[in-house]
Amino acid sequence: MSRPKRRAVDPSRLAAFEVLKAVRVDDGYTNLLLPALLARHGLAGRDAAFTTELASGTIRRQGTYDAVLAACIDRPLRKVEAKVLDALRLGTHQLLGMRVPTHAAIDTTVTLVRDQVNQGAAGFSNAVLRKVASQDLDAWLAQVAPDDLAVAHSHPAWVVEELRRALADRAEELPELLAADNDAPRVTLVARPGLAARDELPGTPTPYSPYGVVLDGGDPSSVVAVAEGRAGVQDEGSQLVALALAAAPVDGRDERWIDLCAGPGGKASLLAALAAQQGAALTGVELHHHRARLVARAASATAGLAGVVQADATRAPFADASADRILLDAPCTGLGALRRRPEARWRRRPADVTELVGLQRALLAEAIRVLRPGGALLYATCSPVLAETADVVTAALAEHPQVRLEDVSAHLPAVPDAEGPLPGTVQLWPHRHGTDAMFLALLRKA
């Protein structure tokens, strides 16, 4: 008697499983891992979109799903084999977070576990997922997280508290913000001025940036202007950072612009295009060689890029008071970009804030040294955490009495409801503006 033929593993589920493993084992980044894995498994179109949501959504909602799985397993999750737990999380997301039929979600996950682990683990996974499927997400949340925003919205508790503090007197918006962090981000394109027009890009115009569109679907690399480097993929919040600096008035000459932390090159590319239109040129500074190459490649289509310098921006290779405009998009926790960096919430620790604040203060002091009197300096972070935003700027103003804080909101008049934690600063929010939670502060040396 011939044995029944074993089911083949679904390539979409296998690719998502490999993403979770690489994130867990190699500290990989979901958005960087996906393109290569999609290509390796021959996934495109709807299959690629399914895999992307399966991997990214599972990582975003990991905290919630682990609470559900803990209620369905009679031993601590730490004692479940890591590969099996990865697969169970994928199955749980299909059951509770995607429109996948119950039988398909369970059967494909069990097949995946059988192929990647063993038959015993497959039987265990089948039993667990049938328990998960016994209730919908709302019912599970009522059971495992009736009054716990961190579990219900899948954020570490310390992150929830930092976001609550950043919302200040509008803390009632916290559930809405946490929910927005779990939404799949829209793909936004930017037409680099002087190189491309917004109306040649497919999609819906962005509400605040005159150069952006939200892509309706498809692969952005298939857009001609993107393939030619005349346009790029860039969140609208990042576009607004570049636009605010370019719009700020300066006294006297306006020729030398610097992006002190330019990698991987999105803001530098837009700034270089804007600089060219204003008769200026941008120099990018990047510490890491591979990121410096990305900056040069991203901005290669514009004449506004003077060059890319590989250097430590805390010891920038520029003379005192030599730059007319400076962008300091400082390294940060990235807690304002959790939609597109799903693994960041699980990797960051409170100690990271302290370490990054020290770096941010050193970078800002160096930017102030290089800025000439009358020039404009924009300090930005993709984090709303007060230690990285208001506290860094307040410390710089105290240490450098020749520097004053100006109203950056005046240069973004189309953006509503974006008051930052300091007068004149801007704080964008995913739940209010549909952007990453970018913070902007405009400084000028008297």
From TrEMBL:
It holds the Pfam family NusB. Belongs to the class I-like SAM-binding methyltransferase superfamily. RsmB/NOP family. PANTHER family: NOP2 YEAST -RELATED NOL1/NOP2/FMU SUN DOMAIN-CONTAINING (PTHR22807), RIBOSOMAL RNA SMALL SUBUNIT METHYLTRANSFERASE B-RELATED (PTHR22807:SF53). S-adenosyl-L-methionine binds at residues 261-267, 286, 312, 329. Keywords: Methyltransferase, RNA-binding, S-adenosyl-L-methionine, Transferase. This is Transcription antitermination factor NusB. It comes from Nocardioides daeguensis. Residues 166-446 form the SAM-dependent MTase RsmB/NOP-type domain. It comes from the Bacteria. The active site is at 382 (nucleophile).
